[in-house]
Amino acid sequence: MRPHMPSRRSFLLSAGAVAAAPFAAPLVHKLPAAPAPPFAARAGRALRDAHAVAGGRTPDALADDEAYWGEIQRAFDADRTMINLNNGGVSPTPSHVLEAMIRDLRFSNELPVEHMWRVLEPRLESVRRELARELGCDPEEMAIVRNASEANETMILGLDLKRGDEVIVSTQNYPRMLTAWEQRARRDGIVVKQVRFDVPSSDDHVVERFAAAITPRTRAIELPHITNLTGQVLPVRRIQQLARPKGIEVLVDGAHAFAHFPFTRDALDCDYYGTSLHKWLLAPVGTGFLYVRRDRIPKLWPLMAAPKAMDADVRKFEEIGTHPAANHNAIAAALTFHRAIGAERKAARLRWLRDRWAKQLLAASDRVRVLTPLDDPARAGAIGFFAVEGLDPAKLGGWLLAKHRIVTTPIVFPEFSGIRVTPNVYTTREELDTFVETVVAAIRTGVA
């Protein structure tokens, strides 16, 4: 449970509540009053109607209710001429969130030196406060950045490491993070050790693999909270508690976790955490955060230079030069939308969507293997990964896109190959059923 979670009933029961900057503190300078934009009004009605449909039912009971989720889908202007099952890469943002960003961009452009720097940028503190509330940390431990790569590379490149120091990663870490470590190895002479674990794998096996790689020279471990390949959730807390007594820093790549399923900082017991917000929180592209435990902030160098006076200030990680405030401030509208649905409801729906296609494919053919854990809600979420014996995943993915306008993520990896499927809350049951029917046809007749 989170330390504080306003009730869904208190959010967005009117269109105006959606249109407003929901977390903005009072400021001397204010945007001119305006009626609720049309997309905001539509989102407000959709959430109000969805709330009425939900009643008092549990998240699991609501997971397959198309009346409820149909109302949520009205908040999106998704292109329905294609079936997008790569929301793990980037997801559409609700239309009213996009509209909030555009409104602020226009306002900023009228007089940037005043509107951008003196009106909009101070509002970031409200976003910081609410993201910190959602994660369960102090706002002074929360930096607003542009994506998980920026957050994670701040951690990777900001640690003080010397020649011969060892870092442990997994082969399933995100490729950009592995590239960052390889650059440190070339530049600083550190040693990067990669561990492999089975897919899918038990938590015990994952912990054992990391534990076996630790030596007296190990200084850091970097791992994904949930892998971007198969969607398995890794035992972050256990690895953190294995490493901390040995003085080993643990860096957590949460690109696919935040707002995907509920968790808190204390549940993970983590000291560092980076994520993107354009995936599962449904914020605009160019949004993410970096969490650093307060006593670690002075020890971590920022990606871009900051004055010494900021050594202990989490805002040093935001010193990136002139940049728009609009997309970061729109995080507020996305977070309000997320809370209006409810984290548990959203997670239950995402698991249901995954199971909808995965279990149908498993039942349709004994040539299908699903490499994502389906039996434990704590071990996976919306991300699913499957392979079909005798079908090349790259060819299958290309055929799905070219012939049927279905977007998936073919993955050819040294240890396994297949297709990643990532629906989101705007995905319809009919779209998933069409995907299943199309893959079953490919299994039966091929993709030539």
TrEMBL record:
It holds the Pfam family Aminotran_5. InterPro entries: Aminotrans_V_dom (IPR000192), PyrdxlP-dep_Trfase (IPR015424), PyrdxlP-dep_Trfase_major (IPR015421), PyrdxlP-dep_Trfase_small (IPR015422), TAT_signal (IPR006311). Residues 1-24 form the signal peptide. Keywords: Pyridoxal phosphate, Signal. Residues 84-400 form the Aminotransferase class V domain. The keyword Signal applies. The keyword Transport does not apply. SUPFAM superfamilies: PLP-dependent transferases (SSF53383). It comes from the Bacteria. This is Isopenicillin-N epimerase. It comes from Roseisolibacter agri. The lineage of its organism: Bacteria, Pseudomonadati, Gemmatimonadota, Gemmatimonadia, Gemmatimonadales.
